[in-house]
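Following up on my earlier message about NAP. Here are the inputs again, as you asked, copied directly from the submission form:
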Amino acid sequence: MSVRVGVLGATGAVGQRLIQLLDPHPEFEIAALTASESSAGKTYREAAKWRVDAPIPTDVAEIEVGATKPEAVPDDVDLIFSSLPSSVGQQVEPEFCEAGYVVSSNSSNGRMDEDVPLTIPEVNADHVDLIEVQRDERGWDGALLKNPNCSTITMVPALEALDRAFDLTDVRVSTLQAVSGAGYSGVSSMEIIDNAIPHIGGEEQKMETESRKLLGSFDGAEVQLHDMDVAASCNRIPTLDGHLENVWADTAEDVSAEDAAEAMEAVTGVDLHSSPDQLIKVFEEPDRPQPRLDRNTEGGMGVAVGGFRETTDGVQFNCLAHNTMRGAAGASILNGELLNKRGYL
Ligand SMILES: NC(=O)c1ccc[n+]([C@@H]2O[C@H](COP(=O)([O-])OP(=O)(O)OC[C@H]3O[C@@H](n4cnc5c(N)ncnc54)[C@H](OP(=O)(O)O)[C@@H]3O)[C@@H](O)[C@H]2O)c1
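Thanks, got it. Here's what our run produced:
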């Protein structure tokens, strides 16, 4: 039987990707959509300025958008996907959890809270059981699970492969991030055309902290952050989708460029519907991956890497992922599949 799901922030850039992926999903059935007060009461077709490069699902288009509060969502909804601005998520996500809903959230609020699991199922699925601690501490029947920031998700699967084989000590990363990462009203065309913006507010800190939580160890009570040092520099560029990142990874063990590529190529997906068979695609061509050519690797759920070079203390490489698919909507759905499989719904 399918799980009835609701989507908070359903009209936004990530919300629309959630609808695109959920409509044909074999485990989930869309039962409720919410957005801001200005969208509430309209049909989804009227409220969402549909910008996905696939038709709006006809059955979803006629659903009435509700206000973003627990009372507006039917009780028989088992799972909520949240793609709200973090200031809104901060306030309403706990209200949904308190009301008994399990929330798989893409918003940045609460990701580093000690009792909130932050997961990429192929990397640290075991951290989901932090929900038991969360429920004890907060007295919730519901639960809150987070996926990381889109720029963090892009590099972490590759880092995990290196860490497992060669022990990471230091990571330096510089990003080239697509405009869709800022949401529909995030960056104006006058700002970004013929330009690059060497600042994305709060993004560096997210990459530096979330990556250490994802690669940290969970002992059943708490997550110990990985002790590697991570420093990031984030840039917005005029691509539409797909974040490209240049990574310098220092390791305790010796690693060659070939070793690093082999370790990443060996990473498989997990037994969840949205996880690709091969998580990391390795390119041998030095000028790949590229956003326009490679963002749809494995239906947008894969990570593409290339450009391996040995450095004094490790390796340098480039990585790329689709920021609204693997980096946002697809990541939340994959976490929803994990919650379902682990019996949290
Ligand atoms: N875009 C990405 O690649 C990406 C990647 C990772 C994480 N994220 C995170 O995902 C979240 C959503 O991002 P986005 O790019 O989809 O943003 P967006 O395009 O601006 O969409 C925001 C959504 O939230 C709704 N909303 C805004 N204010 C609200 C309020 N006061 N009450 C209830 N609903 C409200 C909007 O509804 P209306 O249409 O009615 O205004 C819309 O549905 C953010 O936290 C962002 O940081 C985004």
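One observation from looking it over: Residues 150-166 form the longest helix (17 residues). Hope that helps, and feel free to reply on this thread.
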